[in-house]
C-alpha cells in the first residue's frame, strides 16, 4: 500500500516556507504528496519535489471553475497522472438535474485531460451522502453518470459524517475508486477535533480493505488542534505498522 499526503494538511507551513515544508514532509517518510490549487505554485513545487525525491500522482484543482488548460499543463509539469476536482457546493447535489450538469462538466474535462495524458476524478464531502436521489446517495447516483475513464477519490471521513457507511459506499462504487482520503476523528463537522489515524471512530483498516482497486491512500487532516507535523507522523506510523 502506498501512502501520500494531501498538502492542504500543511497549508499554513507551505504558505510560510514551501521548500522547507516539502523537505519536512519528506523527512517524515513520504515519497508522494497530493498538491491543491497547484497552478500558481507549480514551479516552486516541482523544484522542491526534485530536491526531496517526491512525486505527485494526484492533485486537487477546481476543474469546473478555473482554466482547464492551465490546470492540466501545471499538472503535467508536476508529473501528475490524475487531477481531482475537490469541491462542488452542496446546493448542486440536491437534484438529479444539477448532478447531471456536474457529471457532464467533468466528463468534458476528462476528454480535455486525456489530451494531456491526465485522468480526471472527483473528491466528495458530506453533502453528497446526505442528499438522496432516487433512493440512493447523490454520490452513488453521480457515479452512474460518469464516463468510464473518470475516477473517484472517496473521502471516507466525510462519507461517515454524511451519515453513510464508508465500507458500504466503497463497495458500491467498486473499481471507480482509485484514491481515498484517510483521516480519523469523532465523525463530526468540527475539523479541529480530527485525530491521527487509528485514534478516532473510523474503522481505518476496514475502509482501506473495502477499496479493492485502490492505487494510493492519501492521508489528510482538514484541521488539527495539536502540532500538525506530529499528527501526521502519528498517522503514518499507524499506517506503516499495518493491520494488527
From TrEMBL:
Sorted UniProt keywords: Carbohydrate metabolism, Isomerase
Keyword tRNA-binding: no
Signal sequence, renumbered to the chain: none
Xylose isomerase-like TIM barrel domain mapped to chain residues: 23-215
Pfam families reported for this sequence: AP_endonuc_2
Entry annotated with the keyword Isomerase: yes
InterPro entries: IolE/XylAMocC-like (IPR050312), Xyl_isomerase-like_sf (IPR036237), Xyl_isomerase-like_TIM-brl (IPR013022)
GO molecular function: isomerase activity
Protein name as it appears in the record: Sugar phosphate isomerase/epimerase
Organism: Arthrobacter silviterrae
Amino acid at each position: 500500500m502506498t501512502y501520500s499526503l494531501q498538502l492542504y494538511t500543511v497549508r499554513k507551513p507551505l504558505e510560510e516556507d514551501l521548500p522547507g515544508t516539502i523537505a519536512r514532509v519528506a523527512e517524515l517518510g513520504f515519497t508522494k504528496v497530493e498538491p491543491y490549487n497547484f497552478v500558481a505554485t507549480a514551479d516552486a513545487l516541482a523544484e522542491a519535489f526534485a530536491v526531496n525525491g517526491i512525486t505527485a500522482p494526484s492533485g486537487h484543482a477546481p476543474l469546473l471553475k478555473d482554466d482547464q488548460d492551465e490546470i492540466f499543463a501545471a499538472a503535467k509539469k508536476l508529473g501528475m497522472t490524475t487531477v481531482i476536482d475537490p469541491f462542488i457546493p452542496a446546493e448542486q447535489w440536491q437534484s438529479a438535474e444539477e448532478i447531471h450538469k456536474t457529471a457532464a462538466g467533468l466528463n468534458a474535462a476528462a476528454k480535455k485531460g486525456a489530451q494531456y495524458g491526465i485522468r480526471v476524478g472527483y473528491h466528495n464531502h458530506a453533502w453528497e451522502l446526505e442528499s438522496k436521489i432516487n433512493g440512493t446517495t447523490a454520490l452513488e447516483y453521480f457515479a452512474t453518470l460518469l464516463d468510464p475513464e473518470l475516477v473517484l477519490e472517496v473521502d471516507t471521513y466525510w462519507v461517515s459524517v454524511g451519515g453513510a457507511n464508508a465500507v458500504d459506499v466503497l463497495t458500491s462504487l467498486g473499481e471507480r475508486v482509485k484514491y481515498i482520503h484517510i483521516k480519523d476523528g469523532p465523525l463530526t463537522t468540527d475539523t479541529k477535533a480530527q485525530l491521527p489515524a487509528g485514534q478516532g471512530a473510523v474503522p481505518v483498516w476496514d475502509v482501506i480493505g473495502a477499496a479493492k482497486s485502490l492505487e494510493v491512500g492519501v492521508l489528510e487532516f482538514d484541521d488539527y488542534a495539536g502540532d500538525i507535523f506530529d499528527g501526521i507522523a502519528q498517522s503514518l506510523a499507524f499506517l506503516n505498522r499495518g493491520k494488527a
